């Protein structure tokens, strides 16, 4: 497949440890993944080779447009034969180059689970005899290198699995614990360098599956993991850092924070948000407002991970919420953050059903609805007082939930 001139790639096979190589691809310039997810820092498509004394396995492939990089890296690593291609997840950024890999290595068997095989059948015309189906915790001996397959459904697809390399204590974690980050560093040097991209990745992709991730973290706690090799982003030689961050993100703990996704047409709603933000700050609450006409939705997803309260602020447009507010509510509902409280604020000119409309969109959230603040026209002095009381209501609820104590 021809490489687009809009992309900037790096080709380099890299050694992880004895018999284990990174052979993936890095796209520094990607800015939208799956035509959906903002990737301001690019991404990598990680594929790995594990060489045993008797057999060699490739773990995942790459985005089809980058398969030349994969093949060049396999050549640089001296790989002339593949016995197995392990597919941890059927999505095309993992499996897209699989048909061409199987053409180049006709002896290779595809190692995956039943559900993943069914998904791959929807994407590619692969002969059934090319598959070796494994069960949960089944092993594959490469000769001094043992792969163990750990099923991890709904992280983030139902067929996802991890691959555990027993001897080297390496977890090939698929999308789990990854980050959309194009970097020349193979390994994470400091968690601060990866924290925001990893939290963005969790917020955008993993957060809807929080309960499943909790159980998988408990399962992984029994493994003596020395290294985490995800499908995107750099590798973790201090795995407790990223595992600890995930335990925090999936916990029920929220922070004394109010996220305000807002949009304003003629300034009235924006003025309300400004006063509301000032009043909350004066009461000791952290505030994160997002102008939806300018916001990177990935930044909003990051903020939603921890916030105790989300307040959607919108003018009324044709009796309903502004389309940007509807999009933000839809996104929030899909991501299912652990927020405790939701509410609405804004202005209208004639009449409308803005709050009812947004509340229906947010039907998946297990959050208490705080009575909204909707005013008619531009805010005036009596409205400023109402905004202060609105801030008082939220502050009181945060105090009752013990969220101020967490700041001490």
Quick summary:
The chain is built from twelve helices and 25 strands. The protein has helices at residues 67-76, 92-95, 98-104, 114-123, 191-206, 210-220, 239-250, 268-282, 297-304, 323-335, 354-361, 381-400; strands at 9-10, 14-17, 20-22, 25-27, 32-33, 37-38, 43-45, 48-51, 56-59, 84-86, 109-112, 131-133, 139-141, 146-151, 161-165, 170-174, 227-230, 255-262, 286-291, 307-313, 316-317, 320-321, 341-348, 368-369, 373-376.
Structure description:
This protein is α/β, with parallel strands linked by helices. The chain contains twelve helices and 25 strands. The protein has a seven-stranded mixed sheet. Strands 18, 19, 20, 23, 24 and 25 form a six-stranded parallel sheet that branches. The termini are far apart. The relative contact order is 0.09.
């Amino acid at each position: 497949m021809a490489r687009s001139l809009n992309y900037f790639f790096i080709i380099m096979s890299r050694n992880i440890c004895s018999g284990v190589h990174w052979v993936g691809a890095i796209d520094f310039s990607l800015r939208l993944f799956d035509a959906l997810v903002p990737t301001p820092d690019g991404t990598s498509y990680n594929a790995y080779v594990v060489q045993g004394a008797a057999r060699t396995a490739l773990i995942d492939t790459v985005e089809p447009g980058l398969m030349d990089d994969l093949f060049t890296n396999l050549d640089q690593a001296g790989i002339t034969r593949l016995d197995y291609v392990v597919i941890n997840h059927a999505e095309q950024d993992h499996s897209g180059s699989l048909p061409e890999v199987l053409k180049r290595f006709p002896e290779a068997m595809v190692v995956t689970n039943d559900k993943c095989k069914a998904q791959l059948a929807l994407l590619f015309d692969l002969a059934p005899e090319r598959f070796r189906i494994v069960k949960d915790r089944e092993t594959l001996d490469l000769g001094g290198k043992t792969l163990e397959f750990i099923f991890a459904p709904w992280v983030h697809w139902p067929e996802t699995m991890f691959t555990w390399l027993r001897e080297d204590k390496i977890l090939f974690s698929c999308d789990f614990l990854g980050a959309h980050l194009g970097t020349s560093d193979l390994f994470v040097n400091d968690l601060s360098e990866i924290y925001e991209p990893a939290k963005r990745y969790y917020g955008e992709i993993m957060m809807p599956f929080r309960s499943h991730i909790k159980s998988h973290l408990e399962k992984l706690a029994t493994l003596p993991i020395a290294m985490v090799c995800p499908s995107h982003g750099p590798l973790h030689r201090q795995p407790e850092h990223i595992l600890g961050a995930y335990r925090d993100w999936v916990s029920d703990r929220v922070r004394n924070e109010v996220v305000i996704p807002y949009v304003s047409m003629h300034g009235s709603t924006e003025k309300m948000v400004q006063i509301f933000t000032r009043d909350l700050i004066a009461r000791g609450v952290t505030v994160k407002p997002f102008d939806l006409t300018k916001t990177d939705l990935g930044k909003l997803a990051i903020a939603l991970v921890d916030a105790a309260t989300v307040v959607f602020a919108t003018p009324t447009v044709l009796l309903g919420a502004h389309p940007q507010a509807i999009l933000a509510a839809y996104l929030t509902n899909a991501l299912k953050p652990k927020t405790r409280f939701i509410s609405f604020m804004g202005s209208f000119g004639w009449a409308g059903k803005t709050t009812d409309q947004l509340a229906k969109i947010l039907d998946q959230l297990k959050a208490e609805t705080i009575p909204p603040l909707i005013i008619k026209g531009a805010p005036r002095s009596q409205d400023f007082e109402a905004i202060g009381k609105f801030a008082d209501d939220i502050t009181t609820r945060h105090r009752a939930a013990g969220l101020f104590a967490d700041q001490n």
